[in-house]
């Protein structure tokens, strides 16, 4: 009985650092998102390519935040595309400047969060420049642009 109790205590002590770990993903996030949809990943490709598809989870929040850090030598337009049907419709976009490491983010409110939605994130570089940067997307139960 004592050996089982000690083994259980050791298991809990090994799990504790995982609970204290920082959330992985958007390095600018102060609060952990409900669901990381597009993990924080580096990209390097030509203009017109996209990340995805990724799908929201029902009842995990109605806000989708997209974050991008630009390391390209040109402005990059980041476009959230609807991927639920064969016609990809742009939903929201941002332009991130060409300064090394400049960041941009936007929040999209999911119209019906009770059903899964599929999205893509498309990248267009000015003058078809090669796009280099980091991208992340996460689903939130609250509006991360207005956390109060």
Helical percentage:
10-25%
List low-pLDDT spans: 18-33
pLDDT averaged over residues: 78
Principal-axes shape call: extended
Strand order of the biggest β-sheet: 1-8-3-6
Q: Using the CA coordinates, give the radius of gyration.
A: 19 Å
Intertermini distance = 49 Å
Helical run tally:
1
The beta-strand count equals 8
Biggest sheet architecture: 4 strands, antiparallel
Q: What is the ordering of alpha helices and beta strands?
A: HEEEEEEEE
Structural class: mainly beta
Strand percent estimate: 35-45%
Topology, pairings included?
Blueprint (H helix, E strand, L loop, with lengths): L1 H19 L14 E11 L4 E6 L7 E8 L5 E7 L6 E8 L5 E8 L8 E8 L5 E10 L8
Antiparallel strand pairs: 1-8, 2-7, 3-6, 3-8, 4-5, 4-7
């Amino acid at each position: 009985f004592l050996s089982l109790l000690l083994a259980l205590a050791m298991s809990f002590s090994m799990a504790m650092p995982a609970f204290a770990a920082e959330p992985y993903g958007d390095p600018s996030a102060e609060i952990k998102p409900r669901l990381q949809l597009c993990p924080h990943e580096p990209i390097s490709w030509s203009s017109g390519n996209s990340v995805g598809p990724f799908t929201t989870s029902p009842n995990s929040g109605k806000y989708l935040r997209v974050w991008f850090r630009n390391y390209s030598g040109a402005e990059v337009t980041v476009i959230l595309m609807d991927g639920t049907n064969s016609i990809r419709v742009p939903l929201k976009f941002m332009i991130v400047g060409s300064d090394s490491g400049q960041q941009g983010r936007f929040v999209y409110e999911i119209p019906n969060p009770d059903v899964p939605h599929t999205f893509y994130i498309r990248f267009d570089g000015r003058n078809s420049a090669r796009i280099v940067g980091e991208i992340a997307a996460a689903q939130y139960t609250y509006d991360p642009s207005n956390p109060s």
